[in-house]
Every structure is written in structure tokens, then in C-alpha cells.
Amino acid sequence: MHSDQRFKKQAPSENLIPVRVKQTDSVYNKAKRLKVIHLNVQSIGNKTTLVNDLIVELDADIAFITETWLKPKGDEGIVSQLRPDGYAKPLNFARTTGQSGGGICVIHRESLDMQCTALTTMTHFECCQCKLFINGRSLLLICIYHPPPSSKNKFTPKQFLAEFETFLGGFSLNVHLPIFIGDFN
């Protein structure tokens, strides 16, 4: 069985929209197609080999991994295992609130010129943004992990939507058209 079929989940069709790529775009013509994947792993601790194999098998240029459950300190050994040959040192954006769970990890090819930062001002979701530089242009990739509402976190969909709307308002769409990736629960 092809590995991406093992992880294929049927998405509700109302959540999907077709995205057209202009084939005249200079980035499209001068470079191979960029392959970006997202994985929600619900604890990466014992899945590093599987994740590495999947990244290689899918020939991913960039992998955004949510719900890593890694800690900011003490999980460096696990993070170092998440590095297939030809990929840069993984970027671990662990949850810093003291609560367990969550977390985002970014793995990308060494050949990519990419800068990533955690955006830590959010209360109802975790977020990192990566700026990818290609042929004198930049592409903004934003990974979101929104935990599901629970009695423990007391989050509501309304709170998330209000905070996310404020977050979106901070972008000048004339400068960057961001691409959002992640788990919005």
C-alpha cells in the first residue's frame, strides 16, 4: 500500500476549493513544483522513523507537523531524529504555556532559503510563519494548530474565530498572500 493512502482521510467536500496555479508564473517555470505536506501526529516521540519515511517517500520539500507534543527543552534528541538526508535541522515550535500537547515542527530541504518564526501572541491557537525565498520572490506559509474545544481549555469556536480574524487583519495582502496550512479542528 502506498504510504499516503495509509494516511488519507476523506475531507468534507464543502471544505475543499480548487486552487489554480498560473503556469506562466516565473516560480513555476524556473523551479520544480514545490511539495508541501502537513501531518498531525498526536505525539511524534515514537513516530520519527515513520514521519521521516513519509517525507522521503512523498518527496516533500517542506513538512509542517502539528501536535508533536514536544517540550521546549528536553526533547532535542527526538527533534534531531526528524532529519532525513538532505533536510535542514528541524525547527521545533513547542507549546510554551506549560500545558502538554500541541506544538509545531517544520522540516524543509537544506536547499530551500526559508526563515521561520513562532508567533506566540495567540491564545486560542498555535502558529508559526515561514517565509520562503525563491527566484527573488517570497512566499509566506503559515502553519496553524487550533486545539479542539474542551472542558480543560475552555476554548469556544467563537473565541477562535474572533482571534483568527484579528490575526488575518494584520496581513497586508498587497505584500504577501499567505498560504495557510494546519489543523483548524
Automatic annotation (TrEMBL):
Domain of life from the UniProt record: Eukaryota
| Keywords noted in UniProt | ATP-binding, Helicase, Hydrolase, Nucleotide-binding
Q: Which InterPro entries match?
A: Endo/exonu/phosph_ase_sf
Coiled-coil-forming residues are none
UniProt GO molecular function: helicase activity
Q: Keyword Hydrolase, does the record have it?
A: yes
Alphabetized Gene3D superfamilies for the sequence: Endonuclease/exonuclease/phosphatase
Q: What is this protein called?
A: ATP-dependent DNA helicase
